[in-house]
Amino acid sequence: MRLRSVYRSSGFILASLILCCICSVNGDYCEVNLCDNGGTCVTGIGQEPFICICAEGFAGDICNTTESGPCSPSPCKNDGECEVIEKSRRGDVFNGYVCKCPSGFEGVNCQINVNDCTNQTCQNGGKCRDLDGDYTCQCPSPYVGKNCQLSCISLLGMETGGIVESQISASSVDFGILGLQRWGPELARLNNQGMVNAWSSAPHDKNPWIEIDLQKKMRLTGIITQGASRIGTAEFIKAFKVASSFDDKVYTIYRNDGQKKDRVSSKVFVGNVDNESTKTNLFDPPIVAQFIRIIPVVCRKACTLRMELIGCELNVLSSAVGCVEPLGMKSRLISDGQISASSVFRTWGIDAFTWLPHFARLDKQGKTNAWSADFNDRSDWLQVDLEKPKRITGIITQGAKDFGVVQFVSGFKIAYSDNGQSWTVIKEQQSNKTDKVFPGNIDNNTHKKNLFEPPFVARFVRFLPWEWHERITLRMELLGCEV
Ligand SMILES: *[C@@H]1O[C@H](CO)[C@@H](O)[C@H](O)[C@H]1NC(C)=O
Ligand SMILES: *[C@@H]1O[C@H](CO)[C@@H](O)[C@H](O)[C@H]1NC(C)=O
Ligand SMILES: *[C@@H]1O[C@H](CO)[C@@H](O)[C@H](O)[C@H]1NC(C)=O
Ligand SMILES: *[C@@H]1O[C@H](CO)[C@@H](O)[C@H](O)[C@H]1NC(C)=O
Ligand SMILES: *[C@@H]1O[C@H](CO)[C@@H](O)[C@H](O)[C@H]1NC(C)=O
Ligand SMILES: [Ca+2]
Hints:
Organism: Pygocentrus nattereri (Red-bellied piranha)
GO molecular function, one term: calcium ion binding
Pfam family, one: F5_F8_type_C
Structural class: mainly beta
Domain F5/8 type C: 152-312, 323-481
Bound molecules: 2-acetamido-2-deoxy-beta-D-glucopyranose, calcium ion
Domain EGF-like: 26-64, 67-111, 113-149
């Protein structure tokens, strides 16, 4: 019985289980424990009347033999696969086993996490972070791209008029002393000339703001601000905050270090000092948004502004590098905490055999090496929070085996979201009404790749199982690139 030996190493956890209270839908415990040496007896799995989950160091149908051999227990670290080898193959340096290491690991026991940063691939001052078989560059603004090779420094059109009047709005407008001069938001253009050449908020407005609708998601790396003068007096914004939105409803204030946590104070940008000179502030990290709002905090005489936005289109990168990089399930750029699910299955209700959401990493090895859903119905989902919007162009999916039982998702839908609350399900391209069902896996191991056409930009992605074999079970990788 090959199956039985795989239960061995978690057996020590099982020894302490109180059997009666944790029976699950998949298996029941034997009335009389037929297993030796602290093994756990389970019924209702496959054809056998019962099977034994053996304690550490024991093997055999009823755990009555001591397990031994070079791969028992496995000396391979980091999901390396242990294989027993013949003596003749290794000559003098006979170990009796070889570890087949996953990419990014080396050494006899796969114990070495290769430093994927040694070749200094990050350009323009980007900081390299080592991952499992991959690396990531933390780029200083305005550089972007896998290796910080691109600079995102286009002027977005306040000065040139590329951003039109109807895209600019404000909390209020100052109509001047006689109500004849309209200091409207459409005038807030860098280097605008004339008697009335800037936006100015109404004197009574206690919470002024001016907002630009970029009409689609864009990346913003900076802002240039400028004051103006009215009847020989300089008016300008000395300090301001910035907020951004995807939908003109929910606004996120830009915080120090770009963090979104509430306890981090909102960033106050230093603005102008006179009526004419310009001040450039960088957003580091950049802001990805459709709506950008400038909120004056301290004004001289009046909150009067001319401005320009610095940034670039989101698709600059996708066309530059193909945009099909793994986004970090396998490499662990996506941390455990960023992966969640509707429900989680435990084989025989045993905690040690929990199929956690963050096990859903492509090519993960081990006894429980995937996410598996407990409800096992179409309400289940697996969610990845990428922490910032990314362009997502595809997905690779893979099934797994639960103690010999092959299980996989054979059809699925994909939903995405900017805020984790309102979701868009990918539709069939021909009709805007039908959800697209992507073809999934057909076995326990093969990679199945689907591309999203068109790709989408989002922070949250949800995998929605639609059809499956045995249980909903998934390992996966998202493909895409930075926006
Ligand atoms: C283990 O149990 C099996 C079945 O009862 C028996 O055939 C076998 O001889 C036992 N092995 C040892 C080492 O006791
Ligand atoms: C670094 O570059 C060398 C030579 O191009 C290559 O052999 C090696 O695998 C690279 N190392 C990493 C960690 O990518
Ligand atoms: C505005 O700026 C220009 C150029 O710096 C300067 O000559 C002028 O005196 C300023 N006007 C006011 C009202 O401050
Ligand atoms: C689907 O919606 C898009 C955008 O709203 C539109 O351009 C396209 O014509 C629609 N296609 C169909 C078949 O309705
Ligand atoms: C599961 O996948 C492995 C690797 O591709 C394959 O060797 C094995 O036969 C598969 N197992 C089953 C039960 O299909
Ligand atoms: Ca590494």
